[in-house]
């Protein structure tokens, strides 16, 4: 019990690899995912700890060090790895998190799979996370929990430690009560989240949906609302709201409802984009393209990311626009991050089938319409593709935020390139100068990609300048400062709750 900041996120904050018979801990490949940002919070703490899981055949004798100590650029922190059996991992993460929660979080009611869920296993895993956090937290410490996989941790932790400040951040969408309440365990989850001092979201809509859910399940009063700032308003986005709830009360206690969009390390990305070796790579790509235009799409293989519908739109584009044949190339990057899950294997197979059909129908020896990449790309290479692309085509059916769209914008220090973005991605409420499109509408998708390919240089420049202003304003440092301020506010609320108890 010594840490003043405990971060609880189901993944370990590094890549653990074996080298010459030794275990080596490496930074995650993508420098802009959440993990590097969360680790940077330990610089603001006296001592930090991180609670995650690690698979073990025998949890009593896991065969690895439970606690790993670090003292690096992020300060002094320990990582507590909870041993989970393969059966627990499959049940807690693959089945309950990805096959039951994930479709509901993204409003895919028809993909929701309830029957295989083993709810007692989900409870026991979340209890283990709560116990480990309680054991690590110093008196009055801040415990910052991330994402739906750990929805029950706040309630369990509050039982164990009434003194700690509990903050919960959702990286995914949060659906309205009509969708969320499909979950049979809705009340248990809602009451757990109501044990927090702060509940955080990317955008106002998710915060409003959360309030609708807890008010449908518990005696919750909404105490404060605020006007949404101009840079978070977007007429073209289905997710835009003009006001947002900022606090609720439950059982005489105030709970902050915080909206703060995750950003990216725009300065770092721009520094990679401006390197001479990046310019050389971009020149090679442009030479390879000749007079053709490059459309780039990047995302995990997941039905929420809309890869299938995007490829079908591309097929219709080539069918209807003979002038584009031989003059456009789509680089479709769809990496399968959720292995061993049939629902994702099916999507990967469908994407490969459609891409193959398009190449078969329209391709020639000299020209392949689709380059399908189904593997991880080194970040520096990804930056070169972002810089070389004429269009970034990011059209998820639902997406909590989407950092790929922001990375593309951060790379475009030439103030060129066009972003086509789904109005159902959280990022669309900030990136209103993108061509916003509805991926559920063929006409909207087909019109948007053609508009992007035909856009004149001056309009491209005007739009990109506005996009870059937003991405650099709401960057990862802004998010970190927001979170730091919120954690301080919550500390005062927790103290008030303890004195009035
Ligand atoms: N094939 C890939 N290779 C390397 N990095 C990738 C690849 N696909 C996505 N990424 C990285 O993964 C992250 C995806 O984040 P985001 O767009 O928010 O979606 P999600 O978190 O839902 O996967 C980005 O930082 C992006 O650079
Ligand atoms: O299965 P996971 O945990 O890899 O899913 C990735 C998910 C984490 O919840 O990504 C979300 O977080 C991103 C950063 O906040 C956000 O940009 C993205 O839209 C979410 O899917």
CATH level-two architecture of the largest domain: 3-Layer(aba) Sandwich
Radius of gyration: 23 Å
Ions, cofactors and other bound molecules: adenosine-5'-diphosphate, the ligand O=P(O)(O)OC[C@@H](CO)O[C@H]1O[C@H](CO)[C@@H](O)[C@H](O)[C@H]1O
**Percentage of helical residues?**
40-55%
Strand adjacency order, main sheet: 5-6-4-1-7-8-9-12-11-10
Briefly, what CATH class of the largest domain? Alpha Beta
**Mean model confidence by pLDDT:** 94
Unreliable stretches: none
What do we call the CATH topology of the largest domain? Answer: Rossmann fold
Proportion in β-strands: 15-25%
Number of strands: 18
Largest sheet descriptor: 10 strands, mixed
What gap, in angstroms, lies between the N and C termini? 24 Å
Structural class: alpha/beta
Shape: globular
Tell me the number of helical segments per DSSP (H or I, 4 or more residues long).
16
The CATH H-level homologous superfamily of the largest domain: Glycogen Phosphorylase B
How many domains would you count in the coordinates? 2
Function: Involved in salt tolerance by producing GG-phosphate from ADP-glucose and glycerol-3-phosphate (G3P), an intermediate in the synthesis of the osmolyte glucosylglycerol (GG).
EC number: 2.4.1.213
GO molecular function: alpha,alpha-trehalose-phosphate synthase (UDP-forming) activity; glucosylglycerol-phosphate synthase activity
InterPro entries: Gluc_glyc_Psyn, Glyco_trans_20
């Amino acid at each position: 019990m010594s840490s003043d900041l405990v971060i609880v996120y189901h993944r370990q904050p590094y890549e653990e690899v074996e080298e010459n018979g030794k275990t080596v801990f490496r930074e995650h490949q993508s420098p802009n995912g959440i993990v590097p940002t969360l680790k940077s919070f330990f610089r603001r703490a006296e001592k930090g700890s991180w609670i995650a899981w690690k698979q073990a055949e025998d949890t009593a004798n896991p065969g690895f060090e439970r606690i790993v100590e670090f003292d690096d650029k992020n300060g002094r922190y320990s990582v507590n790895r909870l041993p989970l059996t393969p059966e627990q991992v499959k049940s807690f993460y693959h089945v309950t998190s990805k096959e039951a929660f994930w479709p509901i979080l993204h409003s895919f009611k028809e993909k929701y799979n309830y029957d295989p869920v083993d709810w007692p296993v989900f409870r026991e895993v979340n209890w283990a996370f709560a116990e480990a956090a309680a054991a690590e937290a110093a008196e009055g410490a801040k415990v910052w929990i991330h994402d739906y996989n750990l929805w029950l941790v706040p309630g369990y932790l509050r039982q164990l430690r009434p003194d700690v400040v509990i903050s919960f951040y959702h990286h995914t969408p949060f659906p309205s009560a009509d969708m969320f309440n499909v979950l049979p365990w809705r009340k248990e989850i809602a009451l757990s989240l109501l044990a927090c001092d702060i509940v955080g979201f990317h955008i106002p809509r998710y915060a409003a949906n959360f309030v609708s859910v807890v008010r449908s399940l518990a005696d919750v009063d909404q105490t404060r609302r605020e006007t949404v700032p101009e840079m978070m308003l977007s007429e073209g986005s289905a997710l835009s709201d003009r006001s947002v709830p900022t606090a609720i009360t439950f059982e005489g206690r105030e709970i902050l409802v915080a909206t703060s969009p995750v950003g990216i390390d725009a300065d770092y990305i721009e520094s990679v984009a401006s390197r001479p070796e990046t310019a050389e790579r971009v020149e090679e790509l442009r030479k390879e393209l000749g007079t053709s235009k490059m459309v780039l799409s990047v995302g995990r293989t997941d039905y929420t990311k809309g890869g299938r519908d995007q490829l079908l739109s591309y097929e219709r584009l080539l069918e209807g626009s003979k002038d584009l044949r031989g003059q456009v190339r789509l680089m479709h990057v769809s990496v399968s991050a959720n292995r061993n899950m049939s629902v994702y294997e099916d999507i990967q197979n469908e994407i490969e089938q459609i891409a193959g059909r398009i190449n078969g129908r329209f391709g020639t020896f000299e020209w392949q319409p689709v380059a399908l990449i189904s593997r991880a790309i080194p970040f520096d290479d990804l930056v070169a593709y972002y810089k070389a692309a004429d269009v970034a085509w990011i059209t998820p059916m639902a997406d909590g935020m989407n950092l790929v769209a922001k990375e593309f914008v951060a790379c475009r220090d030439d103030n060129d390139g066009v972003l086509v973005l789904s109005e159902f991605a959280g990022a669309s409420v900030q990136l209103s100068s993108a061509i916003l499109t509805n991926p559920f509408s063929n006409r909207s998708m087909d019109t948007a990609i053609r508009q992007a390919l035909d856009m004149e240089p001056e309009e491209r420049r005007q739009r990109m300048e506005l996009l870059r202003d937003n991405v650099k304003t709401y960057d990862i440092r802004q998010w970190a400062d927001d979170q730091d301020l919120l954690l301080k506010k919550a500390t005062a609320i927790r103290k008030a709750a303890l004195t009035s108890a």
